[in-house]
Amino acid sequence: MDHKKKKVNSNRHIQQRKRSKVMFFWDQHKTITSCYELIAKNVCENYQLTLTLCGGDAFHLVPRIIRAVHGSNDRVKRQLGIGLQVSSITMTVFYIILMYVWKYTFPELTAPVAVEAIIWISAIIRIVVCILPQNNWCTDEGNMKLSIIRNAVFAVTGIGVIILYAISGNTNGYHMTRMIAAIIISFGCYLPVTLFSKTKLKVGLLMIPKTCAYMWIVAMGLQLLL
Fold this sequence. Notes:
This protein has helices spanning 2-43, 48-70, 74-105, 113-131, 144-168, 178-196, 207-225. With 226 residues, it is mainly α.
């Protein structure tokens, strides 16, 4: 019995060490990529897309920095959990704003009613799911089932926005078809991280190209202001 208990305790210790490494790595790359977004904010303080991203990320960036420097505790875990919840909602708002950027950029075009409805409905569903306490935002385990649901409907929101920019194509010479590539890259990098980053350490590196894709979106938006 003593041998079995020692083996169990040893396995728990190994798991805790692995989890600590994952948390440290996650904190490091999120701190770096969020700094990129803050730089973008300084470039154009009035650009709503950037403000939405930076405002949402700030809620979990600060707890991540604290955890990386001073270690974790219940208070930091709670702050980080709430920050992740807020940033999940602001990311959804980001794509709603992106839809209105399309509308104001191409007033001569009309968004298909079905596409706009899909964007709104999927965005609202995601926000409602994000609010649910069953997400367990403040725990290390989270809720994989709800994570899959909220990110699946988020992908639907992204597809709706992609359709809009595919419709406009190269109207007025803006070359906004590049927005399609940026959105696909951002989702292609973001979804694996949300699903596997806690178990697959190096998957977190995808947050760097994901943030670069968001900066590309911001740059395209700045182009419209010039």
